[in-house]
Write a structure and sequence with these properties.
Number of domains: 5
Distance between the termini: 72 Å
Family: Belongs to the CdaR family.
Pfam families: GAF_2, GGDEF_2, HTH_30
Organism: Micromonospora endolithica
Number of strands: 16
Low-confidence stretches: 541-547
CATH class of the largest domain: Alpha Beta
Strand content: 15-25%
Largest sheet: 6 strands, antiparallel
Structural class: alpha+beta
Radius of gyration: 36 Å
Protein name: GAF domain-containing protein
CATH topology of the largest domain: Alpha-Beta Plaits
């Protein structure tokens, strides 16, 4: 029997992603060949298993596509702030991801006890767009009431649901048949329902239900975030109006209102802690310190000494307990907190005594400072995570959609088609503790984003993608600056420049090999590029632990006597050998390059022969000597 009538053919069909009908081919061929019934049964079983595998692979591919779409959805939602924009984006993406004819959303009305149509995408019926569903009525009302997903392949004929005339009329006018509805939940509370529907019978499979549930979960958070932002803006407007009224009562209240307005403006225009500190001192006078949770200085305005750490801890604890600012000697302390989390403190040395309204200004400043610190941390973490995930996708995964990668990069202000260099930072930058790793990665993220690049952690390394063409200079700058941050020598290997998403993975591999080669050359704590190491970098790129010891042994065995002789006598035998090989073995040209007489070169080479042996100029031995000289030069670049 030929291979074409054996189970092996089913593997070949799987490998080339053949259509399902082609899996009947081996059975047809076997029957035509008159094989035994047992053999036919074996082939039938193999075909069944192969079709199962084919179906599984298909589901995996679909799931990958769905997850990618879900990721893009979350990224898009994160950038929206207006509630209506968020709702429209959610419904449109639901329709796109499930390839549905119509997608829509209803939100629960607690006052009326029903759920009403809020946003639609693909709808053509005005009656359908105005529907309100009593709790428990229709598919949507049942989902809103129970908080559980429901799906039907044919809603008009499905008697599981409580049909009403108004709902059936709206659904009929829209022409909907298959409907899937999932709850929008915040914790244990259902706030609405997200739907996907078709105008023909269609069974929504389990994976599609799970996808819409995932989208609904992200959508609920995005809706709540947009709502909170809107409420915050409304609250700020209400506070501003209230303070306008208070301003008429007394001078101190006017100062408090002015300070509040100023700090509100700082928040709205993206000001920092330094701006808040300056605003407080301009209103209250005196000098102010802003400290983080560890007592490190965030901002200083005016002449004021930092209190003792123990005094700060005690005063901040008292401020948190009392829920207001406290006085210790001539200083006022206001704890900067978010819930139960201590974020730092404001320390004020006023010029004059503070009245209650002035204390409120200081306390308001601590609240604004907490908001700014939380917002800055959240933005930094989110942006760092997104930028890190993009770089990880570029260097670690097979590129399937370069246009999507370019689009993600453009949203981050990165042009992947511009020249970039990849810098790999060695393990010597990362201490054993997790906090040290996070500090290094945080520094790398800030360093790269400040230059329009990316940073990520990868296989124990920290990788930076930086715009430009000077790979060696970038590696040295990273090694130098990160050494200052960590307080220990840091090694950095670089490669590039390269342009385009497809080239970055190979550039990272080269940078990683350059990093390994630097360790093998004993150049830990330095930065260099693959171009600067040349062919030696290629040879040593795969060297792992113990590589430096191997290189040292090779150098000792090959040119060690010459190097030692120079060190003891102050001679120039190594330089003479480099010049001699560099001019192709010409004594005259070597002498000219060294600015010595030809006889001097001859005498030095005779000394080399005495140290290395008479066969040092034979081709095989000469190649080893030249390689050793190059390694020696790379290990001691300052020479």
């Amino acid at each position: 029997m030929s291979v074409m009538s054996s189970p092996v053919e089913f593997l070949e069909l799987l490998a080339r992603e053949a259509a399902a009908v082609e899996f009947e081919g081996p059975l047809v061929a076997a029957r035509a060949a008159g094989v035994s019934a047992d053999r036919l049964a074996e082939l039938e079983q193999a075909k069944t298993v192969a079709l199962r595998v084919r179906a599984l692979l298909g589901r995996r591919r679909r799931r990958e596509t769905e997850l990618s779409g879900l990721y893009d959805t979350v990224s898009d939602l994160a950038g929206l702030r207006d509630v209506d924009d968020v709702l429209r984006a959610i419904v449109h993406r639901a329709r796109t991801l499930l390839s549905a004819d119509v997608a829509y959303m209803t939100l629960n009305d607690a006052d009326r006890g029903d759920t009403y149509m809020r946003v639609t995408d693909g709808s053509v019926s005005a009656r359908f767009q105005r529907l309100r569903l009593p709790m428990g009525a229709g598919l949507g009302g049942l989902v809103a009431q129970s908080g559980a997903p429901y799906v039907t392949a044919n809603y008009p004929e499905d008697d599981r649901f409580h049909h009403t005339g108004e709902i059936d009329a709206g659904v009929g006018e829209e022409g909907l048949v298959a409907i899937l509805g999932v709850p929008l939940r915040l914790g244990s509370t259902s706030i609405g329902v997200l739907y996907a529907a078709n105008r023909s019978a269609r069974p929504f499979v389990r994976e599609e239900v799970a996808l819409l549930v995932s989208l609904a979960a992200h959508a609920a958070v995005a809706i709540d975030t947009a709502r909170l932002l809107a409420e915050t803006r409304a609250a700020l407007e209400e506070l501003s109006a209230a303070n306008t009224t208070i301003r008429a009562h007394s001078t101190s209240v006017e100062r408090a209102a002015a300070a509040h307005d100023r700090m509100t403006a700082l928040v709205l225009r993206g000001g920092g802690v330094e701006d808040v500190a300056a605003a407080v001192t301009e209103v209250l006078g005196g000098a102010l310190l802003a400290l983080d949770a560890e007592g490190r200085l965030l901002a200083r305005v005016g002449e004021i000494d930092e209190p003792e750490r123990v005094d700060i801890v005690e005063a901040v604890a008292a401020s948190r307990t009392e829920g207001r600012s406290v006085r210790r000697g001539h200083l006022w302390y206001a704890a900067v907190v978010a819930g139960a989390e201590n974020l730092g403190a404001l320390v004020l040395r006023p010029d004059d005594e503070l009245v209650d309204a002035d204390q409120r200004i200081l306390e308001r400043a601590s609240f604004v400072t907490a908001l700014l610190l939380l917002f800055r941390r959240t933005v930094a973490e989110a942006e760092g995570r997104v930028r890190g995930e993009l770089l990880d996708d570029l260097i670690a995964r097979p590129l399937r959609d370069t246009d999507a990668l370019r689009s993600r990069a453009r949203r981050l202000g990165v042009d992947l088609d511009a020249p970039h260099v990849l810098v790999a930072v060695g393990d010597d930058a990362i201490a054993a503790t997790g906090s040290a790793r996070l500090r290094v990665l945080s520094w790398a993220t800030t360093y790269a984003s400040g230059r329009g690049g990316l940073a990520a952690a990868r296989d124990g390394r920290v990788v930076l993608m930086l715009p430009g063409r000077d790979a060696g200079g970038s590696a040295r700058a990273v090694a130098r600056d990160l050494s200052r941050i960590t307080g220990r020598p840091v090694t950095a290997g670089a490669s590039g420049p390269s342009s385009g998403p497809a080239a970055l993975a190979a550039t990272f591999v080269e940078a990683d090999r350059c990093l390994t080669a630097l360790g093998a050359l004993g150049r830990s704590g330095q930065g260099a590029s693959t171009a600067e190491l040349g062919f030696v970098g290629l040879l040593l790129g795969a060297v792992g632990e113990g590589g430096d010891a191997d290189v040292a042994r090779f150098l000792t065995a090959t040119v060690g006597p010459v190097v030692d002789y120079d060190a003891r006598r102050g001679t120039a035998l190594v330089r003479t050998l480099e010049a001699y090989f560099g001019v192709g073995g010409s004594l005259a040209r070597a002498a000219e390059q060294l600015h010595v007489h030809v006889n001097t070169v001859t005498q030095r080479l005779e000394r080399v022969g005495q140290l290395l042996g008479a066969d040092w100029q034979k081709p095989e031995r000469a190649l080893e000597v030249q390689l050793a000289l190059r390694l020696h030069r790379l290990r001691t670049p300052e020479g």
